[in-house]
Amino acid sequence: MSNKSVWQWLLLVSAACLLEAGVTGQEKKTESQVKGIQSKEVVERSAKPPSRRGPTKQRPRSVTYSSAKPISNAKPEAGKEYASVGVTIWRLQVDGSKGLDQVGEEDQTLEPVEGNTRFAIGSNVRLGIESLSHDGYLYIINREQFTVDSYSKPRLIFPTTRTRDGNNQVRVNERVLIPKRPSYFLIRPSSTGREQIGEVLTIIISPIPLKLPAPLGKQPMMLSEELFKEWESLYSVPFDQLEMEQGAGETVRAKDLSQVGEEAQQLFDGDPEPQTVYRALIKRGNPLLITVPLRFGPQ
Predict the structure, then answer these.
(1) 32 domain residue, yes or no
(2) Which domain holds residue 259?
């Protein structure tokens, strides 16, 4: 090979290496960009008024949410908008040396968990829901999920007259606790005889009240399959699930979430952000509908 050929070959190899490095660097940059979203872009709080008292946990403002898949921040097309809701599932921690009925309210410790957590049978959980983008009306529907990919009939577990006297109107920067203190949801299979693998919660935030088949009562309302499927057909869209990095596992005292009897709490700058954020691109003026699974299994 002549000297000229050698130099040409070296130049080609160098150019190829530089091109590959440039592409790799761009891929890494893109991956880094979509991995995390700063909390200020997802969770915005009102300024804390000087007169407010009560315990708040001051969290650094570098909170980051990450998604298992790339997400888009592209400007919505005409007639559409982004809507988001924050969900925190708190699992009650119980000292193994004490029975649940011996744990006093002041001693109860709650652990926020990620949205895909599996829950051991007998776990006690409480939900925190907050609309991050729109004022509206909150609805939560529960269905039992079985191994044959089937579900129980849908039940409207919120609102009921037992919680906020049936008032399901929510505002941005307001967290609704379900159920209210000192109650919890107990994770346990149904007694239908079918093998149950979890519960599925459908959360809807609607700009106007949804038409229900009957007046609210103290107990959850049974919904027809036709009505539930109609809501799904009208409002279901793909959504992103983002988890707060290093958020799960940070315990909180139950009494610090709200006062006994209060099911809603106005949130301000410095209050903890939700553990899980669900975000969707919806038709402007439509309700936001997302599903949250509570899967059974070992912790």
Answers:
(1) no
(2) 37-46+59-296
Quote the tokens at residue 137: 């009306």
CB-based burial, 40-62: b 16+ in 10 Å, e otherwise: eebbebeeeeeeeeeeeeebeee
pTM for the complete prediction? 0.78
Q: Looking at the domain assignment, is residue 242 inside a domain?
A: yes
Collapsing DSSP to helix, strand or coil, 186 comes out as strand
Nearest Cα to Cα of residue 269 among 120, 49, 14: 49
117 located within any domain: yes
Grade residue 63 by pLDDT with cuts at 50, 70 and 90: confident
CB-CB contact of 273 with 36 (8 Å): no
For residue 266, pLDDT over 50 is answered with yes
Number of folded domains that form the chain: 1
Give the CB-side neighbour count of residue 87, counting CA atoms within 13 A: 30
